[in-house]
Each structure stands twice: as C-alpha cells, then as structure tokens.
Amino acid sequence: MIKGIGLDIVELDRINKSIKRNERFLQRILTEEERGILADLHQEARRVEFVAGRFAAKEAFSKAAGTGIGKLSFRHINVLKNDQGAPILFAEGYEDTRIWVSITHGKDHAIAQVILEEK
Predict the structure, then answer these.
(1) Could you say which of 1, 13, 26, 58 has the lowest number of CB atoms within 10 Å?
(2) Please, which contacts does 17-25 make with residues 24 or more away whose CB atoms are closer than 8 Å?
(3) Is residue 59 a known part of a binding site?
(4) How is residue 75 annotated by DSSP?
C-alpha cells in the first residue's frame, strides 16, 4: 500500500549559485557517501546536476513522508546508485518502508519523485 508521494523541482542555476556562494552548502545537503560520489565527477555541469538531483530527491522524500525538511535533515537521507546506476534512497527511521525514487535532469532543472510503500 502506498504511504506517500512527493515531487520536487529545482533550478540548476540556483543550486550552482549556492555551491559557489557557500562552502558549507555541500556539507549541509550531502552525506559523506554522496560527497564521495561527487568527488569523482569532474565536469562542473555534471556536478551541479548531481547535487540538484540529490536536493530534489531529498525534498521529494520529505514531502512523501509528510515531515518536510526539519524533522529530518538532508543528511538523514542518502541517495546513492544501485548496480545499474539508478538512484536508490535510504532514510533514517524508514528502514521498514520501501522507497521508490526517480531523478531526471533537463536543461535548466532537476526533478525527483519519491513514492513510499509499506513492505
């Protein structure tokens, strides 16, 4: 049974400006594992897409969970990749919930959708 659905869209330019303006932005948004993946990306555009996609996925998760960012921080939510490269999302306190996540990028935006399902 579906427990929640969340959707978020983020402007790539806004994320790029946040990265350049505030050194701590990446520390606040990304987990240590996500920062490790980011370190392997060398093209600026791909790095911005990566961060924007994670930001959107975490916002979408918080909407699906009904908590918003606040009760959960961005660092309680970890968006990694499975063996095929598709995103997978883990969140503290939601180990008994099946979490579906999809992230897409356009020229100007990153969009993510999250569905929470009872296991």
Answers:
(1) 1
(2) 19/47, 19/48, 19/51
(3) yes
(4) G
Chain Cα centroid distance, residue 11: 14
Question: What pTM was computed for the model?
Answer: 0.94
* pLDDT tier at 55, thresholds 50, 70, 90: very high
Length of the chain: 119
Partners of 7 in beta bridges: 113
Q: Is 108 annotated as a binding residue?
A: no
Alpha-carbon distance of 11 to 5, in angstroms, equals: 21
Q: Is the pLDDT of residue 17 over 90?
A: yes
C-alpha distances in Å from residue 61, one per residue of 17, 56, 103: 23, 8, 12
Whether 96 has a pLDDT exceeding 90, the answer reads yes
Of 58, 63, 71, 81, which one is the catalytic site residue?
Answer: 63
For residue 58, indicate whether it is catalytic. no
Cross-strand pairs, 116 = 4, 99
Choose, from 3, 58, 71, 105, the residue flagged as catalytic.
105
- For residues 118 and 97, is the Cβ–Cβ distance under 8 A? yes
